[in-house]
Specification:
Order of helices and strands of chain A: HHHEEHH
Helix content of chain B: 25-40%
Oligomer: heterodimer
Helix content of chain A: 40-55%
Strand content of chain B: 25-35%
Distance between the termini of chain B: 25 Å
Number of strands of chain B: 13
Largest interface: A-B, 18 and 23 residues
Radius of gyration of chain A: 18 Å
Order of helices and strands of chain B: EEEHEHEHHHEHEHEEHEEEEHH
Structural class of chain B: alpha/beta
Shape of chain B: elongated
Strand content of chain A: 5-15%
Amino acid sequence: MVEYRIDRRSGVATYVQIVQQTKQALRLGHLQPGDKLPTAREVVEATAINPNTVLKAYRELEREGLVEARRGLGTFVKRSLGTAPAAESPLHGELEDWAARARAAGLDRDDVAALFTAVLEKHFRKDDQGESS
Amino acid sequence: MTDTAIAASALGKQFGRRGGWALRDCTFRLPAGRVCAVVGPNGAGKSTLLALAAGLLGATEGELTVLGTTPAEARIRVGYVAQDKPLYPQLTVAETLQMGADLNPERWDAAAAEGIVAAGDLNPKSKVRSLSGGQRTRVALALALGKRPELLLLDEPMADLDPLARHELMGTLMVQAAQHGTTIAMSSHVVAELEDSCDHLLLIGGGRVRLAGEIDDLLAAHTRVSTTADADLAPHTVVESRTTGRQLSALVRPSGPLPDDWRTGSPSLEELVLAHLRNPEAPALTPAEAAV
């Protein structure tokens, strides 16, 4: 089961926060295929957010094929999300090398974060995770 | 059933023949099933609008339809909690709920009403007179929700509540909306208080409707821009603009693509509301007008 925590000051649309937290739980294995997502009623009772926001997030997850709504039963996890590459994967190693080189070149933590974010934004547009409102 | 909870057309209310107009020329439509924030500064006309919809005041001009009929005929299906939470001080909490049951024989949901009171640790034998402001709010909400309303009108419902009770009662209201599809219209002058719970906005300023519509649509219709002071904002509709040195910041309703060299951002709901209230001359945006 997953419990949503809504951060009002994050600037991220509430439904996107629910989508992201669900995906995070899928990546970390806290949610697995067959698990039931909390009902809209349970979410709004705990968070006081609008029920349509929850439904919008669930529709988005359904559109991405991660969950399915079963009539009268609730919303269930259909598949898990590929976990992040394990420590021994080549991608991880390459990133390690890159970080070491960046440090050797005199970049500090903020420089690296700024650079990484810029590249991330370029290759992974926001729209890939559903339109932001 | 109708898909419109409240529809107003050129609605106006004047208090006394020579009195000022509390509301004038209000045209908007609140679709059923929405949770609507009725926002505006003190004295904007929020309470007047809610009281008109509740059938407690008569309109001076224009038309108002509630749940597809007149406000008076809709009353049995409408729950209304006024700002001062009127209750009978000499009754106990249990007697107050019993009164709700007696007045709404066909519809009364005793379990729902008692649940709301019980969540507040209220003794059913306490006299209403002895309750704190927050406790009275809880009893008033229990009375309104026990009626199983199709439309719930709440005037500043959270003003007396501590943050914990506010969150908990807002959660209760959202459950009501989720389970029964109840339309809720609640007023506040604090936008942030309602932002996450509401999906529809009615912004009232100076007795007029300034913004009306789905919050997502209203936000999407506006863009925050920042550019050089000599830039020409036409043909876009300008809600607010400010020049500081060489920089121009503005909130606009784009009427086409914006130039690439302008920096743009999405406004927050609070920014949107404040910009409209600071600039009474800014044109209103309501779907009723947009549809024409």
